Amino acid sequence: MESFKPYTARYAVLPVENIDTDQIIPARFLKTTNKVGLGEMLFSDWRYTDAGGPNPDFIINKPEYQGVEVLVAGNNFGCGSSREHAPWALQGYGFKAVLSTYFADIFRNNSLKNGLIPIIISEETYQKLVAADAEAAGEVEISVDLASQTVTLPDGEKVHFPIEPFAKFCVLNGVDQLGFLVLADADLTAYESAHAARVNTAGL
Amino acid sequence: MTTAPQTLFEKIWNRHIVRPETSETPAVLYVDLHLVHEVTSPQAFTELRERGLKVRRPAQTIATMDHSTPTTPRGSDGIIPVLDAQAQIQLNQLEKNCIDFGIPLFAIGTENQGIVHVIGPEQGLTQPGMTIVCGDSHTSTHGAFGALAFGIGTSEVGHVLATQCLLQSRPKTMEVRITGTLRPGVGAKDIILAIIAKIGIGGGTGYVFEYTGSAIRGLSMEERMTVCNMSIEGGARAGLIAPDHVTFDYIKGRPRAPQGTAWDAAVADWATLVTDADAAYDATIELDADTLTPMITYGTNPGMGIPITGTVPTRADMADEQSKAGLEKALKYMDLQEGQSLIGKKIDVVFIGSCTNSRISDLRQAASVMKGRRVDSNVRVLVVPGSAQVKKQAEAEGLDKIFTAAGAEWREAGCSMCIAMNGDQLSPGQYAVSTSNRNFEGRQGKGGRTFLASPLTAAATAISGAICDPRDIR
Asked: How far apart are CA A124 and CA A127, in angstroms?
């Protein structure tokens, strides 16, 4: 994982509540054994017509939204399944962050593991972003700074967002959590010495 | 020394702390049992290979093939044909990963294969007080045994494979108390659909549910699994039910259950896994089972549920503009009108299966409705057992004959049309009544429209050809 650098980016708004992981990437695209090409399948059922061409009405297909790097979405983004293919697809497309008033737990965890930042914003901030986009579709920008946990809105206002200290540390420094766990080996060995395995699958 | 009163969740959590949570780092939490399937594991094994890591505890890990496996009948050679090349690659990869890393595998076509959340309890691997994870959000199912069980992503699958641990911040607890007694024709699926309709699909985010109350105590083990299975549809990663004699009776004698004196010691320990009288939850909600009727969903998330005798909500019922927009979008996708009744709505497909409702008791319920009847000639009915063992048991009881005599398809075990990865899917525009857990747009096939309901309601609908209150068919 690369370490985080502050950035300024244009955004697209998907003003739909409860966007589930089956919309982010439908299950039929999960028959893969790697992460390659998932960005092409992002929002597939909304993004492409039944004939397979781009749906001209879908936000990220519109010319003015080409190259956007931030997604602003309705409440409770990422509900549903545990598929990490959802953040992989968002990143594969080119998104660096998703802003919503609420995120489902597993999606939020999965995103942070990959450096895709789920930024929780207030309803007021959400409405400001929607309004700014409505005035200048695809042209307005926001800035994201993880160290100070701030998003700078198009009008210059800075809003603070929450993030767990450990996830912040990992994303800022490009450190992955598996490395941290591997280093906890002494504690783990001590735990296993004190607790016999509660189950045995061997021979099944 | 007396300890402070604890909830069931706290007791399990505290037993699994390898390193406590600090202000800077989450807790390192030990995992007793790791369930693995073909869809969410390949990239995790790749990670292990790239880092030269081994699977730390292969004997606390079990793999099965379920999501992308076809459920079409076996060929004359006894083999289930896999026609999808991509699915075959994924299945082969799981097999290779299990061989390379020493993990036991229930491969397609073998006697213990099945949906990951069916096989754990079936083998006696799922036990009270354990921590259980899987790269699948319906891992909450195992909470029915008083185990802390939740879904994880593929990065975390890699963490558990390599270290048998997860980094976790402690969730909050919510008591979901179901008082009273269920009426005839109303079951576990109706309870959980009613809960989600009440709290919404994000209502439990950040919480672990503990289901309590007389109506929960009155449920069988398999019914409890149905309730806990859909905790995630209310936003909660895990749902718990304190173990009792129903739990112990279910586990006893299963292949990997404790035996002899170890059994007695285990039961004595498991009996302590209850929320102490004075322990506090962070939140509590309550439902009265006496007031519940069969439930059905009308929209495109599991929180959009109504009593089957009710009507689809109207825009005027919605609290805010976002909810109004959500309702309009859902009704447009479903091609339904606000305020309409669903009873009598013509259906194209009925799916009986999934980790929510594919166990033997679910199939018995469906068969009780279909016995001696024919399914409507305009409806395709798929009955998909949750595991090869469930299939075998159903066939021993003659349930397969009841289904096929009624005109339903009796298929091999797997996730099937719940997730529609394996070729079992709806065509665009088709309506299905499904015993599965998600009615999201396209979940059962692109453009397909799903009504979630109980096995009784699904079977009654199969017979009538249109959405039917199961209490009207007795």
From this structure: 5
Look at residue A2 in the predicted model and tell me its pLDDT.
Answer: 87
Which positions ≥6 away from A80 have C-beta within 8 Å? A20, A21, A22, A104, B137, B438, B440
Structure tokens at B352: 């009986």
Dihedral over Cα of B105, B109, B112, B117: its sign = positive
Q: Are B160 and B184 in contact (CB under 8 A)?
A: no
CA B450 to CA B334: how far, in whole Å?
8
**B chain contacts of residue A91, beta-carbon cutoff 8 Å:** none
Taking CB atoms and an 8 Å cutoff, what residues of chain B touch A191? 18, 30
Contact status, residue A108 vs residue B209, Cβ threshold 8 Å: no
| Positions in chain A short of pLDDT 70 | none
Cβ separation of B205 and A102 shorter than 8 Å?
yes
Pairing status of strand B380-383 against strand B409-410? parallel
Cross-chain Cβ contact A198/B33 below 8 Å = yes
The tens digit of pLDDT for each residue in B2-60 reads 679 999 999 999 999 999 999 999 999 999 999 999 999 999 999 999 999 999 999 99
Least CB–CB distance from A191: residue in B18, B60, B123: B18
Tell me which chain A residues have a C-beta less than 8 angstroms from the C-beta of B234.
none
Residues of A with Cβ-Cβ distance to B169 under 8 angstroms: 164
**Sequence-ordered strand ranges (E) for A117-192:** 117-120, 141-145, 150-152, 158-160
Which of A75, A85, A177 is facing B322, going by the closest CB pair?
A: A75
Q: What confidence tier does B474 reach under pLDDT thresholds 50, 70, 90?
A: low
Q: How far is A103 from chain B (nearest CA, A)?
A: 8
- Residue A106 to residue A116: CA distance in whole angstroms: 13
**Separation between Cα atoms, residue A187 and residue A183, nearest integer Å:** 9
- The Cα B318–Cα B251 span in angstroms is 45
List all residues 6 or more positions away from A166 whose beta carbon is below 8 Å from its beta carbon: A177, B24, B25, B26, B167
